[in-house]
Design brief:
Layout lengths: L1 E6 L5 H10 L1 E6 L4 E3 L4 E3 L2 H9 L3 E2 L8 H9 L4 E5 L7 H4 L6 E5 L11 H7 L4 E8 L9 E8 L6 H24 L32 H10 L6 E5 L2 E6 L2 E3 L8 E4 L4 E4 L4 E4 L1 E4 L5 E2 H8 L16
Parallel strand pairs: 1-2, 1-6, 2-5, 6-7
Antiparallel strand pairs: 3-4, 7-8, 8-9, 10-11, 11-16, 12-15, 13-14, 14-15, 16-17
GO molecular function: methionyl-tRNA formyltransferase activity
EC number: 2.1.2.9
Pfam families: Formyl_trans_C, Formyl_trans_N
């Protein structure tokens, strides 16, 4: 089985590594290099760097639609099947038809739940106890293709998006190898998705990291877990932005955003119901510090109230 692999971020590295130990990877496709850091140094995505290091054929097309040159590259590589994992571009129908077995996608949710760009993050924000990995046959829609394999994964209560990503990357790596083995033996049966049961996981924006103090304490913590990788958790005090870390549910009741106390562990802040304890604070243009250290320096105590940010209705 000859495989073309489409992926870009570090999340996809275990999947590529698992495939190449069992199958012949004849082409790796990744996003183009992008400027990174303050110096805006042009940097390849992790999958491109790994492919170069392994000496695998690499292509980084800026676009896929109406790109005859890239379509020729895909045809000429001789791939029997293509696998996508967090590639980051929509695949046109003309490309999907090139490999004999089409494209298989590793999606980090139990489809049809959480179709879209950020299934890991939204599963955590919504407080899901279980998620999983789906191997699906890619079609021109957004994660709408038939399901080939699916496996659940319980979500530990303390996991952030970083922890869940690591667990799902390992699961996806194992499951895609199984899918490719069964594909070669003709043992996969596609199952159509129930579109009526579909939910969506759109790409995060910065405002998704803003604390909603009017929410329940558990909802505030769930959002913190979901946005841990990006955009992280932001609160406002007298208009100033603060990055918060180490949020957990705590005892206490009060007005949303009201500081209930400062102790050796952190700052306790009331929510719509219950309270959360914040362990770390990073003011703008300054380094992160223990929340109690920040509170003492900033004069924050039981009479302080954080700004209550309310999202604008769509």
């Amino acid at each position: 089985m000859k495989v073309a692999f489409f992926g870009s971020p570090a999340f996809a590295l275990p999947v590529l590594d698992a495939i190449r130990t069992q199958f012949e990877v004849v082409l790796v496709v990744a996003q183009p290099d992008k400027p990174v850091g303050r110096g805006l140094k042009l940097t390849p995505p992790p999958i491109a760097a790994r492919a170069t290091g392994l000496g695998l054929p690499l292509s980084q097309p800026a676009r896929l639609r109406r790109n005859a040159d890239f379509e020729a590259i895909l045809r000429e590589c001789g791939a029997d099947v293509a696998v996508t994992c967090a590639y980051g571009k929509i695949l046109p129908a003309s490309l999907l038809a090139v490999p004999q077995y089409g494209f298989l996608n590793t999606h980090t949710s139990l489809l049809p739940a959480y179709r879209g760009a950020a299934p890991i993050q939204w599963a955590l924000i919504n407080g899901e106890p279980v998620t999983g990995t789906t191997i699906m046959q890619t079609d021109p829609g957004m994660d709408t293709g038939p399901i080939l394999l699916q496996e659940t994964l319980p979500i530990a209560p303390q996991w952030t998006s970083l922890d869940l990503s690591e667990a799902l990357a390992g699961q996806a790596a194992r499951l895609i190898v199984t899918a490719l083995e069964r594909l070669g033996r003709g043992e996969l049966t596609p199952m159509p998705q129930d579109d009526a049961a579909a939910t969506h996981a759109p790409m995060l924006v910065k405002e998704d990291g803003f604390v909603r103090w009017a929410d329940s304490a558990q909802a505030v913590v769930n959002r913190y877990r979901g946005v841990a990788a990006w955009p992280q958790t932001t609160a406002f005090l007298n208009g100033a932005r603060l990055k918060l870390s180490g949020l957990e549910v705590a005892e206490g009741e009060g007005q949303p955003g009201e500081v209930l106390g400062v102790d050796a562990v952190g700052v306790v802040i009331a929510c719509g119901s219950g309270a959360v304890r914040v362990a770390g604070v990073q003011p703008e243009t300054r380094r992160a510090q223990p929340a109690q250290t920040w509170a003492a320096a900033a004069g924050v105590g039981a009479d302080t109230r954080f700004d209550v940010w309310i999202p604008t209705p769509e």
